[in-house]
Each structure stands twice: as C-alpha cells, then as structure tokens.
Amino acid sequence: MSIKNITVLGSGVMGHGIAQVSAMSGYNVVLRDIEQQFLDKAMEKIKWSLEKLVTKQKITLAESDAIFARITTKVDLKEAVKDADMVIEAVPEIMDLKMKVYAELDKVADSNVIFASNTSTLPITEIANTTSRPDKFVGIHFFNPPQLMKLVEVIPGQKTDPQIVQATVDYVRSVKKEPVICKRDVPGFIVNRLFIPMVHEACWLKQRQNLTLEQIDSAVKFRMGFPMGIFELADFTGMDVIHKATIELHLRDKKVIFPHPEIERLYNEKKLGQKSGEGFYKYSDEKYERVQLDEGLASKCNPIQLVANIVNNAAWLVTNKASDIEEIEKAAQLGLGLKKPIFETAREFGMKNIVSELAELAKKHGQFYEPDPLLVSMQ
Questions:
Q1: What is the pLDDT of residues 69-79, one digit of tens each?
Q2: Which residues are catalytic?
Q3: Which residues contact 119 (CB under 8 A, 6 or more apart)?
C-alpha cells in the first residue's frame, strides 16, 4: 500500500503542523480549510517554522523552498482529495463537526483512500461507522506541536483492516515519529487515559489534604519523574482541552475519571492556563516563566494517591488488552515527558502500599478507586 499524496483537512495548529512534517518527509500535501484566509495564515506559519530550521542550520534554504512547494492549499473539498492516498482530518474536537466533515468527504473521496482522524479522545469506531469504509478508517493522534513531539498514537477502530493499521504505522515512521498502537478503541487511548484523570486526582488530593499547588507539583516533578508539575502541565495543555477531554472520557466510561468541579469552574471562568494568562497559576504578559518548584516543597506532599491513579489506569489498559507495559511506558515517556517508567515509580512506592491506598480510597470515595486485578497480582 503506497502512500504518496496526503490531504490534511483543517489548517489549525495540528493541521498545518501535520502538513509540514509530511512535506518535510517528501509527501505531496494538500492542505484544505473552509476559507482561503485560514489557509494563508497556516502557510505563513509553516514558512516561519521552516525559516527557523534554516536559521538553525537544520535544513538548507533550497530544502526549505522545496518543502514549502510540496504543500498546496485548496478550499474545494472534492479538488483537495482528488489525488489523495490518505486523508488526515484535523478539524476541532467536536463530534458533530467531525461527522459532518466525514459525510461530505465520503461522497467525494475515491473508495481506496484511507481516512485517518487526528483525535485525542473521540471514539474512532463511532466516527468510522458513519462512513462507507470503516475498514479503511484509523485514528492517528499527533501530539502538540506536531513539528516537535515525537509520539503518534495509532488507533484502529473495531473494523479497521490490519493492512491499514500497518500502512499508517509506516507513514508515522516515515515522518520520523514514533508510533504507539492503542490496540483497542478505548476512551482516552493511552496518554490521555493516564494524564487527564491525574489532573482531577491532583485536585482531589489538594482538597483532601489541604496542600498547595506548589507542594503537589514539586512532588510530581521530583518524586514521580514528571518534567513539570501536574498543575503546571494542565496550564500548559489548556483547561479547554482538558475540560473537553474530561466530558468525552466520562461520557464513555465512568471508571476512567473522577471529575473534580475545579476544572469546569476554571473553564467557565475562561481561566484556560498559559494561553489566557491564568489557570491554576497566574502568568505575566511577558515570556512564559516556570513555576518555582523544589525538593523542599516536594517533601511536604506524599504523592502516593497520584502514583496509584496513574498506575491503576495503566494497569487497566493492560488488563483490557488495549496495550502492554512496554508500549505504555514508551507512550508516557514520549507523550508526557516522563523521566522514569510509571511501573518503576510504583515499585518504589511499593505495590502493596499502592493497592492498600486504592482500597482505602475506594472505601471512602467509591468504586472508581478499586485497584485493577493486575496491580493486585503484582503485590
């Protein structure tokens, strides 16, 4: 199955990033959006990004020009997919919008074209079943920004042909990214199943133990091997993204997430994190400044509840045959920037301690916390 021509639908941050990395690896790319002004803006951003690579001597000026020339823009959908081998859809994470796009796309695309949805939480099978080709439909979750992030989750739907999965994995490798296959179309796939529930769990920990944001974040950074604190990471990601993902996850599986009202409150108050100047923390208008975290603050917080949360969700993925420990660790390292494996951190805290922490929390706060059978067997 040879893929030479890629059409990317949606020219936002994800769309133009995917278009750029594809063109950099020699693909002919058509970038499509509903208005030419959006496309012009996206092409300016791609040009700027390529110029930076030239300045840093990562590519030559001639290479930059050749890459840029491989991307064409189109507003007409039929025109945009005329020669496509694969269509990567990167429109906003709104189910109705995606379904509307696929209804139009299905009518105009050749029956052999692979449909790949760049979604971080929406159910692949559900979207695939709205098309006439669920066997040629796959999830492809690039991380933000696609130019820099190495990880791409590949998610087959229930009817996806294994050959399509393989062709998608080959494409991901060809654009110099690391694919991780989420073998089942489960809520949150791999990375968001670990990350989003942990943000809520950190809010519960803060409330239950009356800790400060900085104490929890320091413990997450210095004792759990995260590149930054969990609240810091949430602000970096954006409360709009987290809130939307929370709704999707909770809708599909009550066991994956125990929503804390704080996320919805921040979202409703438009405190979206760095992008709005305030989220959990406040940010000045100048350049991004890191929150001051240290080991002294870390000693004030025992993050076992957070370790238990992330490892319990990781164990769920294994038990439910969505992934295995090795792939989960690879995804966490590349997608969340973890400096040490989740299960290694869990062993440092003691599996017995973690299971009893979860059992205790389940007694107080309900079955959400029940330990996964895999963790129970690892004691």
A1: 999 999 999 99
A2: 120, 141, 153, 192
A3: 93, 98, 127, 139, 141
